[in-house]
Design a protein that fits this description.
2 helices; rod-shaped; single chain; about 0% strand
Length: about 90
């Protein structure tokens, strides 16, 4: 799906409109330019989409790693406390 509000696409559409207004009636050229514009817009939008997905994935990954680190630290602290408790009991 093409985002027709894309600034580059709008700018290039204005260029096509000017070509037509100047009397360039070569439909083949205009259609070729239009296809090229759509192709570039789609490529740009795909690139932005995948960059956004990558960013969201990276953020999710970091959040998950942080959660695992916190859980591991809590578990480690609990094990230390249990070990110290058992050790103190064995001394007394």
């Amino acid at each position: 799906m093409i985002d027709y509000n894309d600034s580059i696409l709008k700018q290039n559409c204005e260029y096509l409109i000017k070509l037509i207004e100047k009397g360039n009636n070569d439909n083949r050229l205009i259609e070729e330019e239009w296809r090229e514009l759509k192709t570039r817009a789609i490529k740009k939008q795909k690139k932005e989409y995948f960059a956004r997905i990558k960013e969201e994935s990276e953020r999710h990954r970091n959040e998950t790693l942080d959660r695992f680190r916190k859980e591991a630290e809590e578990s480690n602290n609990e094990l230390k406390n249990n070990y110290l408790s058992v050790w103190k009991d064995s001394i007394t």
